[in-house]
Specification:
The chain contains four helices and nine strands. With 181 residues, it is α+β, with helices and mostly antiparallel strands. It folds into two domains: 40 residues; 135 residues, Immunoglobulin-like, CATH 2.60.40.
Amino acid sequence: MNEFEDAAGTMAERKKAGGYGRVVEVLTSLSITVAGIMVLVALLGGCASGRAGGYGSSGMPDAGDAAAPGGEGKLGIRMEGLRLSAAGYMLDFRYRVLDPDKAAALLDRKIRPYLLDEATGAQLGVPDTAKLGQLRTTGRNKAVVDRNYFIMFANPGRQVQPGSRMTLVMGDARIESLIVE
Protein backbone atom coordinates (compact mmCIF):
# COMPACT_ATOMS: atom_id res chain seq x y z
CA MET A 1 0.00 0.00 0.00
CA ASN A 2 1.42 3.43 -0.92
CA GLU A 3 1.17 6.71 1.07
CA PHE A 4 -1.81 7.98 -0.95
CA GLU A 5 -3.89 4.88 -0.30
CA ASP A 6 -2.90 5.03 3.39
CA ALA A 7 -4.02 8.68 3.65
CA ALA A 8 -7.28 7.89 1.83
CA GLY A 9 -7.89 5.01 4.24
CA THR A 10 -7.31 7.34 7.21
CA MET A 11 -9.81 9.84 5.81
CA ALA A 12 -12.39 7.09 5.35
CA GLU A 13 -11.84 6.00 8.96
CA ARG A 14 -12.35 9.60 10.18
CA LYS A 15 -15.63 9.87 8.31
CA LYS A 16 -16.86 6.63 9.83
CA ALA A 17 -15.74 7.74 13.30
CA GLY A 18 -18.00 10.78 13.28
CA GLY A 19 -16.61 13.14 10.67
CA TYR A 20 -14.85 15.42 13.15
CA GLY A 21 -12.34 16.47 10.50
CA ARG A 22 -15.11 17.84 8.28
CA VAL A 23 -16.77 19.62 11.21
CA VAL A 24 -13.49 21.34 12.09
CA GLU A 25 -13.03 22.26 8.44
CA VAL A 26 -16.53 23.80 8.22
CA LEU A 27 -16.15 25.70 11.51
CA THR A 28 -12.77 27.10 10.43
CA SER A 29 -14.24 28.26 7.14
CA LEU A 30 -17.22 29.81 8.92
CA SER A 31 -15.04 31.70 11.42
CA ILE A 32 -12.89 33.11 8.62
CA THR A 33 -16.04 34.28 6.80
CA VAL A 34 -17.45 35.91 9.95
CA ALA A 35 -14.12 37.66 10.62
CA GLY A 36 -14.12 38.99 7.06
CA ILE A 37 -17.65 40.31 7.43
CA MET A 38 -16.77 42.04 10.71
CA VAL A 39 -13.81 43.78 9.05
CA LEU A 40 -16.05 44.98 6.22
CA VAL A 41 -18.64 46.25 8.68
CA ALA A 42 -15.92 48.10 10.60
CA LEU A 43 -14.57 49.72 7.46
CA LEU A 44 -17.81 50.46 5.64
CA GLY A 45 -20.53 50.39 8.28
CA GLY A 46 -20.45 53.98 9.48
CA CYS A 47 -19.52 55.81 6.29
CA ALA A 48 -20.51 59.44 6.46
CA SER A 49 -22.05 61.02 3.44
CA GLY A 50 -20.74 64.18 1.86
CA ARG A 51 -23.52 66.60 2.78
CA ALA A 52 -23.35 70.05 1.27
CA GLY A 53 -25.69 71.65 3.83
CA GLY A 54 -24.72 73.40 7.03
CA TYR A 55 -25.59 70.44 9.22
CA GLY A 56 -24.00 67.05 9.68
CA SER A 57 -25.91 63.84 10.08
CA SER A 58 -26.35 64.47 13.78
CA GLY A 59 -28.08 67.82 13.25
CA MET A 60 -25.17 69.75 14.74
CA PRO A 61 -24.45 73.22 13.36
CA ASP A 62 -21.64 73.91 10.96
CA ALA A 63 -18.27 74.68 12.64
CA GLY A 64 -18.25 78.09 10.97
CA ASP A 65 -21.41 79.10 12.85
CA ALA A 66 -21.10 81.08 16.05
CA ALA A 67 -23.32 78.52 17.75
CA ALA A 68 -21.01 75.59 16.96
CA PRO A 69 -20.85 73.34 20.03
CA GLY A 70 -17.63 72.58 21.88
CA GLY A 71 -14.41 72.92 19.94
CA GLU A 72 -15.66 72.31 16.38
CA GLY A 73 -15.11 75.96 15.42
CA LYS A 74 -11.67 75.98 17.04
CA LEU A 75 -10.67 72.79 15.21
CA GLY A 76 -11.89 73.91 11.79
CA ILE A 77 -14.17 70.91 11.25
CA ARG A 78 -17.84 69.98 10.99
CA MET A 79 -18.86 66.78 12.72
CA GLU A 80 -20.54 64.37 10.32
CA GLY A 81 -21.44 61.71 12.86
CA LEU A 82 -20.52 59.53 15.81
CA ARG A 83 -21.90 56.06 15.21
CA LEU A 84 -21.59 52.59 16.63
CA SER A 85 -19.79 50.26 14.25
CA ALA A 86 -18.38 46.71 14.15
CA ALA A 87 -21.32 45.18 16.02
CA GLY A 88 -21.08 47.85 18.73
CA TYR A 89 -17.42 47.24 19.59
CA MET A 90 -16.20 50.39 17.83
CA LEU A 91 -17.28 54.03 17.61
CA ASP A 92 -16.83 55.69 14.22
CA PHE A 93 -16.26 59.47 14.42
CA ARG A 94 -16.53 61.17 11.02
CA TYR A 95 -15.71 64.81 10.37
CA ARG A 96 -15.33 67.19 7.42
CA VAL A 97 -12.42 69.63 7.27
CA LEU A 98 -13.43 73.26 6.79
CA ASP A 99 -10.16 74.97 7.74
CA PRO A 100 -7.03 72.86 7.03
CA ASP A 101 -4.74 74.94 9.25
CA LYS A 102 -6.95 74.51 12.31
CA ALA A 103 -7.70 70.85 11.52
CA ALA A 104 -4.01 69.89 11.27
CA ALA A 105 -4.02 68.92 14.97
CA LEU A 106 -6.61 66.20 14.29
CA LEU A 107 -4.28 64.52 11.81
CA ASP A 108 -1.16 64.75 14.01
CA ARG A 109 0.07 61.26 14.95
CA LYS A 110 1.62 62.51 18.18
CA ILE A 111 -1.69 63.71 19.62
CA ARG A 112 -3.67 60.77 21.03
CA PRO A 113 -7.43 61.47 20.88
CA TYR A 114 -9.94 59.76 23.15
CA LEU A 115 -13.67 59.85 23.82
CA LEU A 116 -14.86 60.56 27.33
CA ASP A 117 -18.24 59.12 28.32
CA GLU A 118 -19.96 61.98 30.14
CA ALA A 119 -22.16 59.64 32.22
CA THR A 120 -19.56 57.14 33.46
CA GLY A 121 -16.24 58.94 32.91
CA ALA A 122 -14.90 56.03 30.83
CA GLN A 123 -12.14 56.92 28.37
CA LEU A 124 -12.24 55.19 24.98
CA GLY A 125 -8.99 55.32 23.03
CA VAL A 126 -7.99 54.72 19.43
CA PRO A 127 -6.81 51.13 18.85
CA ASP A 128 -3.20 50.92 17.70
CA THR A 129 -2.52 47.65 15.92
CA ALA A 130 0.88 46.30 14.94
CA LYS A 131 0.08 46.01 11.23
CA LEU A 132 -2.43 48.83 10.67
CA GLY A 133 -1.26 51.39 13.21
CA GLN A 134 -3.79 53.80 14.67
CA LEU A 135 -7.31 53.32 13.35
CA ARG A 136 -7.72 56.90 12.25
CA THR A 137 -6.76 59.19 9.43
CA THR A 138 -3.33 60.66 10.01
CA GLY A 139 -1.78 63.13 7.67
CA ARG A 140 1.46 62.94 5.81
CA ASN A 141 0.18 65.92 3.87
CA LYS A 142 -2.00 68.85 4.85
CA ALA A 143 -5.70 68.36 5.43
CA VAL A 144 -7.88 68.99 2.38
CA VAL A 145 -10.93 71.27 2.52
CA ASP A 146 -14.32 69.53 2.13
CA ARG A 147 -12.91 66.04 2.59
CA ASN A 148 -14.26 63.59 5.17
CA TYR A 149 -11.89 61.96 7.67
CA PHE A 150 -12.43 59.35 10.39
CA ILE A 151 -11.28 58.21 13.82
CA MET A 152 -12.25 54.77 15.17
CA PHE A 153 -12.52 54.37 18.95
CA ALA A 154 -12.61 51.07 20.83
CA ASN A 155 -15.80 50.30 22.75
CA PRO A 156 -14.84 47.24 24.83
CA GLY A 157 -17.77 45.41 26.31
CA ARG A 158 -20.12 47.66 24.33
CA GLN A 159 -20.20 50.14 27.23
CA VAL A 160 -21.40 53.01 25.04
CA GLN A 161 -24.88 52.70 23.53
CA PRO A 162 -26.89 54.88 21.11
CA GLY A 163 -27.94 58.12 22.79
CA SER A 164 -24.86 58.30 25.04
CA ARG A 165 -23.23 61.73 25.39
CA MET A 166 -19.51 61.82 24.68
CA THR A 167 -16.71 64.40 24.73
CA LEU A 168 -13.91 64.20 22.15
CA VAL A 169 -10.56 65.20 23.66
CA MET A 170 -7.68 66.04 21.30
CA GLY A 171 -4.80 67.51 23.29
CA ASP A 172 -6.12 70.84 24.62
CA ALA A 173 -9.17 70.91 22.34
CA ARG A 174 -12.51 69.41 23.38
CA ILE A 175 -15.79 68.86 21.57
CA GLU A 176 -18.50 68.27 24.15
CA SER A 177 -21.99 66.78 24.06
CA LEU A 178 -21.53 64.50 21.05
CA ILE A 179 -24.46 62.10 20.85
CA VAL A 180 -23.86 58.53 19.67
CA GLU A 181 -26.20 57.53 16.85
